[in-house]
Design a protein that fits this description.
Blueprint (H helix, E strand, L loop, with lengths): L5 H4 L12 H13 L5 E5 L6 H13 L13 H8 L5 E5 L6 H11 L9 E6 L6 H12 L5 E7 L7 H4 L3 E4 L5 H14 L6 H11 L3 H15 L5 H7 L5 H12 L3 H13 L4 H18 L5 H4 L5 H10 L4 H18 L5 H14 L10
Parallel strand pairs: 1-4, 1-5, 2-3, 3-4
Helix pairs in contact: 3-4, 5-6, 8-9, 9-10, 12-13, 12-14, 12-18, 13-18, 14-16, 14-17, 17-18
Length: about 375
């Protein structure tokens, strides 16, 4: 039997499974309960946050054979066929490859016929912004007054490319990027079910790489498991993702705030010896300084910033070395350095000079720690 990737194996099958999109789940569930289901929906948001999954769940809930079902039962014939992708009444259309006016006219021809075996015909058009202007115009009248047995669900990552005339005929739902703590919690449930040994720190690195996209995180987790098998170490994850060892980042920042140029130069030598990209190193320094600044400002840094165990203690130790003004000054310097690295032919020299300059600056606060 062929391997099923984690992103497909753990695709949400219920509204309750849509991590980080509770506002969408609640609204759709209430609409089904009250019988006030609109005829056209537009799901917008970044990649991998659950738009297509929500469209399939909505299609299943509308056609579920269990009476008055808010959540699909996932066991009746209609639910199973939609899940497996071969329902005769639910059409998933790729807007990128079916973007012409003739494609829309063909779609309109099928609307007149009643569903073969379901309550509704549901048309899910992914990346709907790829349709041509003529195709949108051909869809206008149908979208405004479709037959009672037809529902449209559009999904897109670029809603600004959709004509206003189309937007005004749809109920719009904006899907948010999934917060890192929720991503880590979901990844933890998955790895426990898959019997994979991995630390919360590694899951946090995977969540950071995913950038709020659950699908991207699961794809990265698949890659990590393929490399490490079922026992995953933090070093393996850092190496596989091309991330700089956190200890190097902490040492570089400590050297800057303690005005220890020798310590800074030693870190840069180690980064060079390990073959890390200096631009990647600079980007991770920026992110680490951001966490240092925020961990002193937010009420619950472990929850809001997705920090775990010793990492939070290490960041607070660094934060105590200087005042907020010094960290803000260093952040500005690092951001400027990172932008300059894009076109630099001397990346090591540029990072060296920037960090030495940071380590040579006197504290900006009178009460700064010695």
């Amino acid at each position: 039997m062929s391997y099923l990737v984690l992103a497909r194996k753990w695709r949400p099958q219920l509204f309750a499974d849509l991590i980080g999109q509770e506002h969408v789940s609640r609204t759709l569930a209430n609409a089904i309960t009250s019988g006030r289901v609109h005829h056209a929906f537009l799901f917008t948001g970044a990649r991998g946050v659950g738009k297509t999954s929500a469209a399939r769940i909505l299609a299943k809930a509308l056609n579920c054979e269990q009476d008055n079902a808010v959540e699909p039962c996932n066991v009746c014939r209609s639910c199973v066929e939609i899940t497996e992708g071969h329902s005769v009444d639910v059409f998933e259309i790729d807007g990128a490859s079916n973007n012409g006016v003739d494609d829309v006219r063909e779609l309109r021809e099928t609307l007149r016929y009643m569903p073969a075996q379901s309550r509704y015909k549901v048309f899910i058009i992914d990346e709907v912004h790829m349709l041509s202007i003529n195709a949108f115009n051909a869809l206008l009248k149908t979208l405004e007054e479709p037959p009672e047995h037809v529902k449209f669900i559009f999904a897109t990552t670029e809603p600004h490319k959709i004509p206003v005339t189309i937007l005004s005929r749809c109920q719009r739902f904006d899907f948010r990027k999934i917060p890192a703590p929720k991503v880590v919690a979901q990844l933890r449930r998955i790895v426990d079910a898959e019997k994979i040994e991995i630390s919360d720190r590694s899951l946090a690195l995977i969540a950071q790489r995913g950038g709020g996209s659950m699908r991207d995180c699961l794809s990265t987790l698949d890659q990590v498991v393929a490399f490490c098998s079922e026992n995953v170490s933090d070093d393996d994850v850092q190496g596989l993702l091309g991330m700089v060892d956190q200890r190097l980042l902490f040492d570089a920042l400590e050297g800057c705030m303690q005005q220890n140029c020798s310590m800074v130069l030693e870190v840069i030598r180690r980064v060079d010896d390990l073959g890390h990209s200096f631009r990647q190193f600079s980007q991770e320094l920026v992110e680490t300084v951001r966490l240092i600044i925020l961990c002193e400002l937010v009420a619950d840094p472990q929850e809001e910033l997705g920090l775990f165990g010793d990492e939070l203690q290490a960041l607070r130790h660094l934060a105590a070395l200087a005042c907020q003004d010094d960290w803000q000054r260093l952040l500005s310097l690092l951001i400027k350095t990172e932008s300059e690295l894009a076109g630099s032919v001397y990346p090591k020299l540029l990072v060296e000079m920037s960090l030495i300059r940071a380590a040579s600056l006197p504290p900006s606060c009178r009460d700064a720690p010695p």
